[in-house]
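User: Quick sanity check before I run a bigger batch. Here is a single chain. Can you write out its predicted 3D structure?
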Amino acid sequence: MQTAMLVFGGLAIFIFGMKLMSDGLHHVAGERMRSILRVFSANRFVAILSGAAVTCVVQSSSATTVMVVGFINAGLLNLFQGIGLMFGAHVGTTITAQLVAFKVSWLVMPSIILGLIMSFVPRQKVARWSETVLGFGFLFLGMNTMGDALKSLAQNQTFKEAFLRFQCSPDSNGMLFSFAVIGAILVGMIATMIIQSSSASTGIVIALGSSGLLNVYTAVALVLGCNIGTTVTAQLAALTANRVAKQAALANTLSMVFGAVLMYISFLIPVKGQPAFFTLIDLLGGDLPRQIANAHTVFNILNTLLLLPFIPLIAKLCEKLLPVKDSKVKYQKLEPHLLDTPSIALAQTTSSLRQMLKKAWKMIDCSLKIYIDNDEKNQAVVRQLEKREADIDERQQDITGYLSQLMRKELTQKEAEQIPLLLHCTNDVERIGDHTEIIRAITEKLNQDKLRFSPEAEIEFSTLHQTLTDLAETSINLLAKNDSASLNKAQEIQERIFSMLDRSEAEHLSRINNGDCRPQVGILYLELIEEIRKIARHLENINDRAGMFYAKLPNAVRG
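Assistant: Done. Predicted structure follows.
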């Protein structure tokens, strides 16, 4: 009983250490994720390298594949890029097994001590590195505890015989063909589905192998199952995603199943008295833990290289199996899976804010046009204004809710500073939408009562409308790409429109006093000027903050 507790206790420490190390690396590297994302659109080779690189950093293929599902669901990646990234993730995750296979017991306690000391450093960056160092120490502490306990169990003849019943061994012809192999693959697959980490389950296989409870043949069969089982994480993430994300998750699973089938076929080809794959593993050398880690790495590299030319065919197969039902794929800008990568989540929030501003401005533009250019096209938009305003309110709630969820994540100081800025801008955009109803009421009253501005006022109104249009378009562009030229242009337009508003107000009051404009019309004109002023103020607020936002991800990333 005590030995069993040590095994499970060691396993718990091992998984905790792996999660701690992965989370620490993820937080440290989160700021770089966006820059790595910029090269994803190049081609399938770059996508595989990028996927491998990101997974090496975050130490989790599950984290990478979930992130890829989120990118696809948000429209940041297409299916081809997503498949390439997932292939690369499976290669990158093998580094964990290679680390576990090292004999680094002497580093365990120094890592835990150093990690604890670093956690007390007030600097956030150092504190986050402490998670990685602590996780590294706990990972190997758990591995050693579990390994020692399993070695003790291996001395128990009954326990050892129980394991021998499930051992896989080649026949006299050097072929590995038995139901035990398929059973081991299924066990590895189910265990990984439960643990949700191929790195953790492969680590357990290495511990069992190093204790003498598994031979290399059984261990490799279990590892094949681990590689299939880890794809369930992407499948779960894609359940609520769009059809393209589901296709990518399916491609991920099919690639691992296809690779396992090819590997099983290689077990039936004898070379030097044993299955071909194991002859290759023997050539690489090393003890049993190293052989298991090497088998894990070689399998994923060979599988990726074999499937690389067939990515377009795999994509077409998945499109056939899971066709897009609607003519247009719906992308989720505020993608929940991107919350674990705050820099990208903030960029997506800025993108959603930009779309919200475009819609709010279209409502204002339509309401202003009712007086001068009230054609059928404009009337069609007018009839939808109530629905559009409800949409703006809903978008505000969505962005606010998304940012509230993001606030619960571990953020850098720069990331944390973005959230109140985005919330203020979202409120500004919502208020811009609210001015639609007031402007529409004024312009419709002018038309219904057949009231017209004086010729001078009509020229002023048209000029103000065009200047406000220029300011709104500049604000929208600033949320997409902030640069000094655009910011200078926005400031120039702001100064011009406020000067024009002051001058128009003064001149119109003069026209009313001189009797050139009826008071009833004059009051409505002054109300319109005040509404334009308020909208310009809201746009000014957005422009002032735009320079402090994460820029929207480039369109090139969409593919």
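The chain is about 75% helix and 0% strand.

User: Great, the batch can go ahead then.
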